[in-house]
Amino acid sequence: MKLTRSFFAPTLLALALMPFAATASADHHGGKAGERGMPEQMQERMEERLQAVYEQAGISEEKQTQLNEARESHYNAMRELREEHYGRMQEILTEEERDALKAAMRDMQKEYRNKRGDRSMAPETAE
Q: Which residue ranges are recorded for the region named Disordered (predicted)?
């Protein structure tokens, strides 16, 4: 199989975005992402996979360092934006509205998870 930019770009993007999912989860769940979202072992595996992708792509250690620094900078900027956005939402919404919004988002998340859970790879059987 010929490995091309179209193969590596989505992989690198996915690996680069994984830490954001944990931080977003922590921000919206009172800092509890480690309990539910992304344990430290998962973070370590993601970093190992990213290292493997870099090596497979032939990225030099110097450029790996630059990419990691850029990813970290982006991560920090996104965290600051999320915190700013969260603060603005706190200013705009009343406590009751915030509670209602949290409940509605929780319901939508449950619905989404239930739909995802219905996707089975098992063949359908005739009844």
A: 106-127
pTM for this entry: 0.51
User: Smallest Cα–Cα separation from 79: which of 1, 15, 10, 20?
Assistant: 20
Mean pLDDT of the chain: 78
d(CA 23, CA 78): 10
Helices 5-28 and 61-92, axial angle in degrees (round to 10): 40
CA torsion sign for 46, 52, 54, 56 is negative
Q: Is 37 in contact with 21 (CB distance < 8 Å)?
A: yes
What share of residues in the chain are helix, strand, coil (percent, to 5)?
80, 0, 20
Predicted pLDDT of residue 127: 42
Instruction: Give per-residue burial for 70-99: e unless 16+ CB within 10 Å, then b.
Output: ebeeeeeeebeebeeeeeeeeeeeeeeeee
Residue type, 98: R
| pLDDT tens-place string over residues 36-82 | 456 788 888 988 999 999 999 999 999 999 998 999 899 999 999 99
